[in-house]
Amino acid sequence: MYFHFGEYLKKRMPEHFDYVALPAEGNFRDELAISMINNAPRRAAAAAWIDFIRSDVAAAVYNRYGFDYVTAEDRLQREKQ
Asked: Residues 33-57: pLDDT tens digits?
């Protein structure tokens, strides 16, 4: 289960849900990517969304809700690749 779904359930039904610590071994994390399709029908909107997702503001939102987010330094490095 993804963390955000577990967080949602725990907040709404705390009597039914709780956290269980998992060992690091065998546990994995997802890494998501973003890109724009070549023939995006609303290219400016897609570019604006990508700019937002790569921003410090988006990182702060993700962090506020318990997600890890690539640091600003790592985002700059990835953009150079």
From this structure: 888 999 999 999 999 999 998 899 9
The CA distance from 65 to 52, in Å, is 17
pTM reported for the whole predicted model: 0.60
Per the structure, the complete domain to which residue 30 belongs is given by 3-80
Q: Which of 11, 58, 56, 2 is nearest to 31 (CA)?
A: 2
Sign for the pseudo-dihedral over CA of 16, 18, 23, 27: positive
How crowded is residue 15: how many other Cβ atoms within 10 Å of its Cβ? 5
Taking only Cα atoms into account, the Rg of the chain, rounded to an integer number of angstroms, comes to: 17
Count H helices and E strands in the chain, helices first. 4, 0
- What angle (nearest 5°) sits at the alpha carbon of residue 57, between those of residues 51 and 60? 130
Number of domains, the chain: 1
